[in-house]
Amino acid sequence: MHGQHLRPACLEVGKKKGKIKSLENHRVLYDSTALALAVYPLLIFYLTLFTAPMALYLAVRHWNTPTSIIHRTKIRLVFAIVLATLEIIGWGMVIYFLATRL
């Protein structure tokens, strides 16, 4: 809040009345979303054809976006990038194999 210090009671009242506009109380966790897009579709491998590029895009696009109100490392983004890249390479190899076999 621009360097202001507020008591918890004041925060609660300001939140209820809508008087505090610059209070940030949540963020989208793009690192967890990108990792989920890279990991969960492995259960049904064919979904990775679509979700791996989405996970790679989210991880790269939101690399500099603040990850959480509480400090978190970029390890989820790194894992998402590595796993999504491996999935894309795997699909490239499958497509190459099928194209050269025909």
Q: TL;DR of this structure?
A:
The chain has helices at residues 8-17, 30-39, 48-61, 75-101. With 102 residues, it is mainly alpha-helical. The termini are far apart.
Task: Explain this structure.
The protein has 102 residues and is mainly α. The chain has one domain. It has helices spanning 8-17, 30-39, 48-61, 75-101. α2 packs antiparallel against α3 and α2 runs parallel beside α4. The longest helix is centred in the last third of the chain and has 27 residues, at 75-101. The radius of gyration is 20 Å and the shape is rod-shaped. The N and C termini lie far apart (63 Å).
Topology:
Elements: H1 8-17, H2 30-39, H3 48-61, H4 75-101
Estimated structural class: mainly alpha
Average predicted confidence as pLDDT: 84
Our count of helices gives 4
**Largest sheet: number of strands, sense, barrel closure:** none
Strand content: under 5%
Q: Order of SSEs, N→C? A: HHHH
Shape: rod-shaped
Q: Indicate the radius of gyration in whole angstroms.
A: 20 Å
**What level of helicity do the residues show?**
55-70%
Give the number of DSSP strands.
Answer: 0
Low-confidence stretches: none
Distance between the termini: 63 Å
Number of domains: 1
